[in-house]
Amino acid sequence: MKTCSRCGRPKDLDEFRKDRSRPDGRRNVCKVCYAGEVSAAYKANPGSKLASQTEYRDRNREALRKAERERLAAMSEAEREVVRKRSRDWTRSHPTRVAARVRAYRATETGRLAHAEGNSRRRAQKLQGTLPEKVPAELVQALFAWYGDVCFYCGKGGQLTLDHYVSLKAGGAHALPNLVPSCPRCNSSKRDAEPLAWMLREGLAPRKPDTAGWPDE
Question: Model pTM greater than 0.85?
Fold first, then answer.
């Protein structure tokens, strides 16, 4: 038994959250009182709490995703299906919040590239019959940096798009060796043309993608 320092009631140890820093391994405040304090603090200043949570998620996005993947991997298939169903139900019940989150994410550079990469994968599936492996937005950004954050074809900077050197329609793969950064003009002009012939027509120096020494190879 342990007495809560807030409500003064004696309760079983299971009614207190764990705290390794305490001699008995439990907090001094019971779960009920703690939950009430958290709820009151949130209601008093919801904007601050939400901003803090958002900042934490943004700062630790990859670590949180990794932890979630590991948590799901440790589950049985039945347990994973419960989690997936809960996620689907929440998404259907909160369409406005989901749409706002999607818009906010796509407004970021990572979100923009992730959206473009997803569109490219679906186009590859439509043209080639199979859905290729996902290329994470972080890897696309690293690829852009590999080529100096400029257009692979004309060398100009600015907002870049993801282009298939050999077009998907011509049988090119949606994979790193066939992906290059491109400015919107070059991407639109090249379309499904044979790349070396197109570069010669445009007065550009012919070149091929070079990922020799790429760290993930």
Answer: no
Separation of alpha carbons 58 and 172, rounded Å: 35
Strand partners, 10: 3
**Would 151 be classed as within a structural domain?**
yes
Per-residue pLDDT tens over the stretch 87-140: 999 999 999 999 998 898 888 888 899 999 999 999 999 999 999 999 998 899
Name residues whose C-beta falls within 8 Å of residue 20's C-beta, 6 or more positions apart in sequence. none
Residue 11 domain-assigned? no
Q: How many structural domains compose the chain? A: 1
Mutual angle of helices 137-146 and 109-128, in 10-degree steps: 100
Contact 149, 192 (CB under 8 A): no
Q: 153 is in which domain, residue-wise?
A: 109-201
Query: Would you tell me how many other CB atoms lie within 10 Å of the CB of residue 199?
Result: 19
Torsion of CA 90, 52, 66, 98, to 10 degrees: 30
